Amino acid sequence: MANSITGINDDIISQAVLQGYTTAIAPLAAFTTDFSSEAARRGATISIMRDNTAIDAALDKTTHTDYTIQDADSDAVEITLGQPKYVSWGLDDVEIASSSVLTMERFGVRKGNLLAKTVLQDIWSEITNANFGAAGLVSTAANFDEDDVADLAETCDLADWDPTDRYLILSPAYIAALRKVAAIKDTSGYGYNAIQSGNVPMLHGFKVIMSNAIPGNAENLTGFATDGKGIVSAFRYLAPQQGHKYDRAEALVGEGGMTLGLRDWYSEDSGVRKTVVETVYGFETGISTGIKRITSA
């Protein structure tokens, strides 16, 4: 009976990890990202199509001449699945018996958030001057407002970004600055109450996303705008080798196909149920014009 209860409690935690991970890693939806529940090995490669920056010019059609067929202006990015990242925990029989469901769920969500934040910071380490050029906007949080967002939108317009697929990802201090803007606070006339929700509505064509995982990258990075093509990433379930003795080794599949791997075993010597939840992923810089950086200096 004890083993059955332990298994149920482990399910509660692992599902809470998946929930916390899926919520925190949601900003990746703004990028070209390939999620799959298929098992893969570290070092495997994933091929993802992308649009090229250069588009062949329109041509004149002259009488009685053949059409010149242009290239589709797309290529594939080969992504190598790299170092897995994971969170883990061990619960002994006493902890399992005395922990409430709510406590275990909260613990799991925190673990999932931590894993997602670590992955995001790794992927966004690519957002540098070397990869994406000079900052599209330089502003401190104290001076940041909706007019800065309008200026950034103009920069994106000049780069011919799709006006229907733009994202603005900002650190909490910059989101807080927008929350204080009078025009944003008073959005009730548009059927939206920013003060009640704490969310900033769509602004100057951008879907606005807050993230506490934006790394400074030694370049004062505090946010960025993207059309989704700046970074390409892929995620897979890391399957254990044949012959393993885990009690459970399986994929945890969440909303949108986001997948984590679960490994679970019980140590009879210590009376501890041990669990690892992990992901294996890879990423590459996509198109250099696909991200406009925001820095504080």
Topology overview:
Layout: H1 2-24, E1 32-40, E2 45-51, E3 74-80, E4 85-92, H2 93-98, H3 101-123, H4 129-132, E5 137-138, H5 146-158, E6 167-170, H6 172-179, H7 182-185, H8 194-197, E7 207-210, E8 221-226, E9 231-238, E10 248-253, E11 259-267, E12 272-285, E13 291-295
Parallel strand pairs: 1-9, 5-13, 6-7
Antiparallel strand pairs: 2-3, 4-12, 6-8, 8-13, 9-12, 10-11, 11-12
Helix pairs in contact: 1-3
Task: Give a verbal description of the structure.
By secondary structure, the protein is α+β, with helices and mostly antiparallel strands. The protein has one domain (31-49, 77-92, 122-295). Helix content is 29%, strand content 30%. It has eight helices and 13 strands. It has helices spanning 2-24, 93-98, 101-123, 129-132, 146-158, 172-179, 182-185, 194-197; strands at 32-40, 45-51, 74-80, 85-92, 137-138, 167-170, 207-210, 221-226, 231-238, 248-253, 259-267, 272-285, 291-295. Strand 11 (259-267) and strand 12 (272-285) form a beta hairpin. Residues 1-6 have low confidence and may be disordered.
Describe, in short, the structure shown.
29% of the residues lie in helices and 30% in strands. The protein has helices at residues 2-24, 93-98, 101-123, 129-132, 146-158, 172-179, 182-185, 194-197, and strands at 32-40, 45-51, 74-80, 85-92, 137-138, 167-170, 207-210, 221-226, 231-238, 248-253, 259-267, 272-285, 291-295.
